[in-house]
Amino acid sequence: xxxxxxxxxxxxxxxxSGLGKGLKQRHMNLIALGGVIGAGLFVGSGVVISQAGPAAxxxxxxxxxxxxxxxxxxxxxxxxxxALGSFYIYARESLGARGGFAVGWMYWYFFVIVVAVEAVAGxxxxxxxxxxxxxxxxxxxxxxxxxxxxxxxxxxxxEFEYWFSSIKVVAIILFLLAGILWITGAWPHxxxxxxxxxxxxxxxxxxxxxxxxxxxxxxxxxxxAEIVTIAAAESEEPETAIHKALRSIIVRVVTFYVGxxxxxxxxxxxxxxxxxxxxxAATLRVLNIPGVTxxxxxxxxxxxxxxxxxxxxxxxxxxxxxxxxxxxxxxxTKLSSxxxxxxxxxxxxxxxFVSVIAAYLSPDKVxxxxxxxxxxxxxxxxxxxxxxxxxxxxxxxxTRGTDQVRLKMWLFPGLSYLTIAxxxxxxxxxAFIRDTRSQFWLSLLTLALILGxxxxxxxxxxxxxPAGVTATGKRKGYLQAPALSLQEVPDKPVGRRRSTRRSxxxxxxx
Length: 510
Prior knowledge:
This protein is mainly α. Helices cover about 65% and strands about 0% of the residues. It is built from 19 helices and no strands. The longest helix has about 40 residues, at about 85-125. The relative contact order is 0.19.
């Protein structure tokens, strides 16, 4: 049996992956919710406020609506066809092996850089309490600790993420409650009302063009909700877990982001001192909360550790999924006795630490290049998700019938096409906005390098194109087999298949 033939027989069903099943529904809910709430909300949102004024509320609302639509499209595919690797598989089935390869590796690269970014951010916070310790020492320490927890089991990752996310959610809820008390006059020494929304050069002081331009960075803040569809492979009931997690996240995330930004610009002037740097800390100072700096540093550190934890997990699972179709070295298929792809985790950790060293030695050149080279990558992946949903929904309706589609995308196909158009606008806008132009072009360079790597991979070994896709990556039309069928070809878990062949037994598949 050739390597290609073996890959063609490999099932993408999460049940056949060999991964552990340690994630519970409570883990899934908080993974979905916490994945979106990162340090960007607590710190980076100040940049958006400085660009759009109080109308930043509208910028975050529009970006949130776009994200909701993308997540609904992904939820439709994930519920109707749970797959190891989630949107990597959906991209393969709709856009061909080349599209799947690009989506999988772009997403892996994105989170490997996130590992470095969050490790550096966490180290800088820790340096506030121990300024004599080098940045790279703290970064390495954080990565070692969270790599260790990830290598134990999926449940270990889930527990850490559950508590990290719980702290973030509680912090935002308390912030919202305090802000509401201030606005209504129930907070001691407060100045109630919403005058700050319009009293400082108007609601959109820099114009509505600036408000729309601010949507671009806002969309990037929302990335992370899709992690739950990858984690579903290690839950006991993937379909149910995805359905519940994504259904609950939509309103909560938009409420947390839009609601908290509303509080920030209502309690104080949008251009008040400190808002552009740390909007939440500036708001807490207005509320006369003691120990504001320490509180915010602890909350941001928690958000950083949560993102670092999820980045290590997500990058390893995507790398593991890439091996299933020969898109990554087979060495990363090895699983521990608890069903953890430890080699894949270590790959992300090692490359992440190399990036940390770059931040230490060349912060203005090498590390800056890495940061810019991943800036738009997640948006490319979101666009691919939207394109895949349209193609696979058509196939699903043809093979099953419209009535058999569960958790449908709203107002299909019109709203799906609108979502694709909005993602195109957001991505193209990056090329014309000064602050994001370098990210756009360097992210395109990242995509070009990945596509070049695919051509090398294709020439070195045959590619197993999905059913209904030609060898050149073009679709023949509708899939002949159910594209989103839950009936998959049975396959042994990775660990068992390898041990069977090692003992000399011949698998029935051979």
